């Protein structure tokens, strides 16, 4: 039995907008994977369920790490850990605050802190 392994090495943080929306909507990793499956991602991307689960988990971890920076957009622009093009940073901030902005500056979403579902 042979397996193919594709490896990508780079320093740009990749953001899947569909997964970001699912994360913002509060879906767990399992729910996000199920929604992506129903959306036909396996057929479009030619991947496996295991890779899809891993990809979704990785995105959720990235979003959790980014969340503290999304609370203070100027810090996101100044940080060096995540190499995200400025236009993508603006999109992330706009969608984050468009989604949660109605709770005010605290970012309090009524949960116990951090992002739920992970």
UniProtKB/TrEMBL annotation:
Which Pfam families does its entry note?
FIBP
Annotated GO biological processes are: platelet aggregation
Q: Give the record's GO CC terms.
A: nucleus
Query: GO molecular function of the protein, one example?
Result: fibroblast growth factor binding
Protein name per Swiss-Prot or TrEMBL: FIBP
């Amino acid at each position: 039995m042979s397996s193919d392994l594709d490896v990508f090495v780079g320093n740009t943080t990749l953001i899947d907008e569909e997964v970001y929306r699912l994360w913002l909507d509060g879906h767990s990793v399992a729910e996000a994977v199920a929604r992506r499956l129903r959306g036909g991602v396996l057929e479009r991307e030619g991947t496996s369920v295991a890779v899809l689960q891993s990809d979704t988990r990785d995105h959720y971890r990235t979003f959790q790490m980014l969340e503290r920076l999304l609370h203070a957009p100027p810090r996101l622009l100044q940080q060096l850990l995540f190499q995200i093009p400025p236009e993508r940073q603006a999109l992330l901030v706009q969608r984050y605050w468009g989604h949660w902005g109605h709770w005010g500056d605290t970012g309090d979403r009524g949960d116990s802190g951090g992002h739920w579902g992970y």
